[in-house]
Amino acid sequence: MDPLIVGLDVGTTTSKAVVFTTEGRAVGEGKAVTPWVVTPRGTQMDAGDLLGSAREALRQALAVAPDGPVLAVGVTSMGESGVLLNAHGVPLAPVIAWHDTRDGAEVRDLTTALGEDRFAGHTGLPLRGQWSLTKHRWLLAHHPQTKEAVRRLNIAEWVVRGLGGEESAEQSLASRTGWLELATRRWWSEALEWSGADRSLMPDLVTAGTPLGRVSDEVGIPRLTGAVLTVAGHDHQAATVGAEAAGPGDELDSCGTAEALVRTVPAGLVDTLAVATLAKGGITTGWHVLADHWCLLGGTQGGLALQSILGLLGRTSNDLAELDREALARNSRTVTVAGVETDELHVSGITNGVSPADLWRAALEAVAAQAEQVHSAMSAVVGSHQALVVTGGWSRSQALLEVKRRVLGPLRNPAVSEAGARGAALLAGMAAGVYAGREQFPPLG
């Protein structure tokens, strides 16, 4: 029986668990919906329900995996959202979605109190309503019981704790909070004070792949009991590991519902002025899942735009291959799609003779152009890329890949369906001593 490692990716839409052999072959998958609830105040969920969803994904994956000892489990997740716990380890408030906008007043106050440039210089983040500190301040104002909190955990950290692991603050997730100073890798006291958070809320900082205890038999998944646990950090950075896109000059283009372009660079490569310039363009600079590295991450709404256009055309993912073929044969200069970078798409140039394929081609061109803007902004700071690796659900679109080749140059589309889960599993293997370091990670087949 081959020994096994497990990667769990707790994402905005679903939790995805994948079981791998130590040679890197996927042998079992499971999926469970992330249990968001839409309320009059916004999008949130119960922390216990989230943990239940993650456990269900693990159960499903192990149910179809071959026999063999499970050596380790790594958990990667979306960033920004967090869980506040009292002295008994009980969650005190809902988990607010990273994309929730209820903290608008707090964002405006933060802008006045600290300023956009100063905030970006300290944290590497553009000042907007995404990071943890403004939602923390909102919780303190609207859920008084949160003043009893003694610990705050990011999503992957909460799941690891719920599986029996030790509490920690993994550096790539900490970099998404607005509380961590980029240059010093220390908690920023002024940001903590502004948000009403105490330094004692934060566990010790660790790097992804650090062993954090073992799965408890109380979890109720016997095959996992005793497996080494690790927090594998932010999902996009974990995906660079899983897709073999974390080397010098590599750039990952993760084409999911929300697209992300990711560059891995040595820590300290980008100076304060360049960090501020990147932030003005919406690009974050933060600590990576890999020790001694930073991550440049620029997000786009390309996947959402493509899904909207596909729906407008009355098509589904089952129609994608045919629509792609037709779109590659078309190149109408009259149809344009604008607003990809916003929540409001604008389609123009629909005249007699225009086909659905023309509109699809225009949407692909617009999405690729937005990605090119982010790509160019990062390249202007850290230099040209050497390899572009494209993964994610929309990488199934052969027409999108072709359009991106024409805009961005040669690209690689590796055969990995869940790059984040694969990266989490490999980092778990490192935590368990299966691999001495990333240079021993098995290559993609």
Word description of this protein:
The chain folds into 2 domains: about 5-235 and about 420-440, ATPase, nucleotide binding domain (Nucleotidyltransferase, domain 5, 2-Layer Sandwich), CATH 3.30.420.40; about 245-415, Nucleotidyltransferase, domain 5 (2-Layer Sandwich), CATH 3.30.420.40. Helix content is about 35%, strand content about 20%. The chain has 14 helices and 19 strands. It has helices at about 45-65, 105-115, 115-125, 130-140, 155-160, 170-175, 190-195, 235-240, 270-280, 300-310, 320-330, 355-380, 400-410, 420-430; strands at about 5-10, 15-20, 25-35, 35-40, 45, 70-75, 80-85, 95, 150-155, 170, 205, 230-235, 250-255, 260-265, 285, 295-300, 335-340, 345-350, 385-390. A hairpin with a 4-residue loop joins strand 4 (about 35-40) and strand 5 (about 45). Helix 10 packs antiparallel against helix 12, helix 11 packs across helix 13 (about 400-410) and helix 12 crosses helix 13. The chain starts with a strand and ends in a 14-residue tail after the last helix. The model has no long low-confidence stretch (mean pLDDT about 95).
